[in-house]
Amino acid sequence: MSITRPTSFDEITYPINERPAKGELQEVAPGVYWLAMPMSGSLAFINLYLLEDHDGWWIVDTGLSNAQTTQVWEDVFTNAIGGRPVLGVICTHMHPDHIGQAKHITDRFRCPLYMTQGEYFQARAFANGGGNSQSGWIGEKFYVQAGMPKDYLEQLAKMWASRSSEGMSMPTMVQGYERLQDGQILRIGETDWQIVVGSGHSPEHACLYSSALKVLISGDQILPIITSNVSVHPTEPNANPLKNWMESHDHFLEVIPEDTFVLPAHNLPFFGVKPRLRDLINHHEDRMLAIEEACVEPQIAKDLLPVLFARKLDSRQMMMALGEAIAHVHLLMHRNRLQRVASDDGVFRYRSVDPTLSRRAHPFDHEAPDDQPAYV
Ligand SMILES: [Zn+2]
Questions:
Q1: Which of 82, 239, 241, 309 has fewest C-beta within 10 Å?
Q2: Which residues have a beta carbon within 5 Å of ligand 1, which is an ion?
Q3: Are 39 and 71 in contact (CB under 8 A)?
Q4: What top-level class would CATH report for the domain 286-360?
Q5: Distance between CA 243 and CA 119 in Å, rounded?
Q6: How many whole angstroms separate alpha carbon 228 and alpha carbon 93?
Q7: Taking Cα atoms as reference points, which of 162, 160, 168 lies closest to residue 136?
């Protein structure tokens, strides 16, 4: 099928209204096929992509590690790709909905896994048996600093238990990989795919760009509609991921042309990469200004959540929301706009210190808070 390209790229448009049916491939560019993989939860689907090579296929992202997803893949291998082998699996980043089936598929076809080094080793660290940083004194200290009650870690432990029973836990990882790096070219069939790396949502997120096809496979780095989660976690309590995220937007604005067709991991493929990147930049700048305004009176991280999110949050949403709030706070500290003070009880308080704030502030003219944090 051919996609109708818009004449203007000043706004976001969706040339395809519907996702392909379960187990079916939809060609979205020459040799590029879209597979919508069902997921539980509010996201409902992850978009995976198959790239046709001369004597087989490449897979970009793999779905969750659960039986339902494995079954859809088996159907695809038998029917949709006509019995031809998978030659390589590319995972954009290390989140469970992207790497869940990487081991299954690479074992089945004895083909290599391609990832960036940052994503591969983080996945291995967090994979089954790797443990998580939400327990123990490091996690406890992190959440006390954020102003959370002592029993919050117990609530989180229950959340992790239910999360793993939903197949959302980290799978066992592939034992070896091929490294992807920013600027590298992968030739698949007759198409050169340039690796473009972003950061902030995950450490070293790979996107694939073809200038000949004018297509970007964007993973979770650039999504329409929802804002990917950008969080500080107890693993690295003083990380500044929002700085990386904002710099990545600038990088993509520079290297990806405006007429690019974006194939994201969630929601529908779209045109309008530049307006979307500018929206994302403006969104986070607006959130940061709202936080600065709130911090004229010193605030703890927990009390900043209503600035960002409208809904009452459960323990898992709370964890992601806190991580996001702290990410915004850390970039503001880096910009010398907030100061962090630890009180005797170990709780951090944030205070606005930028003298130009009174000129920049517009407290009644902000975007409405998001409903809840996105699970991507
Ligand atoms: Zn992700």
A1: 82
A2: 95, 220, 376
A3: no
A4: mainly alpha
A5: 18
A6: 13
A7: 160
Please state whether beta strands 86-90 and 56-60 pair in parallel, antiparallel, or not at all (unpaired).
parallel
Q: Residue 164 above 80 pLDDT?
A: no
CA 328 to centroid of ligand 1, rounded, Å: 18
Mind listing the pLDDT tens digit for each residue in 180-215? 999 999 999 999 999 999 999 999 999 999 999 999
**Percent residues over pLDDT 90 in the chain:** 81
Distance 265 CA to ligand 1 centre (A): 9
Distance 92 CA to ligand 1 centre (A): 9
**Residue 44's pLDDT is what?**
82
The per-residue pLDDT for 356 is 97
Centroid of ligand 1 to alpha carbon of 98 (angstroms): 7
pLDDT digits (tens, 9 = 90+) for 145-161: 999 988 888 888 887 77
Instruction: Please tell me the distance between residue 366's alpha carbon and the centre of ligand 1 in angstroms.
Output: 27
Q: In this structure, which amino acid lies at residue 229?
A: N
Spans of all domains in the chain: 26-131+169-281, 286-360
Residue in 82, 31, 74, 66 with CA at minimum distance from that of residue 52: 31
Single out the residue of 280, 323, 327, 286 nearest to residue 307, CA to CA. Answer: 286
Name the strand (E) or helix (H) holding 292.
helix 273-294
Q: What is the mean pLDDT of residues 79-94?
A: 95
202 CA distance to ligand 1 middle (Å): 7
pLDDT tens across 353-365, in order?
999 999 999 999 9
Find the mean pLDDT for residues 8-27.
Answer: 96
How many A from CA of 97 to the centre of ligand 1? 7
- Give the separation between CA 99 and CA 341, rounded to whole angstroms: 39
Pick the CATH number of 26-131+169-281 from 3.10.150.10, 2.70.98.10, 3.60.15.10, 3.40.190.10: 3.60.15.10
Determine the distance separating the centroid of ligand 1 and the alpha carbon of 362, expressed in angstroms. 32
Q: How many CB atoms lie within 10 A of CB 334?
A: 12
Residue 237 burial (CB < 10 Å; 0-12/13-18/19+)?
Answer: middle
Q: What are the Cα distances from residue 119, in Å, to 93, 206, 207, 209? A: 5, 9, 12, 19
Q: How far is the CA of 352 from the centre of ligand 1 (A)?
A: 31
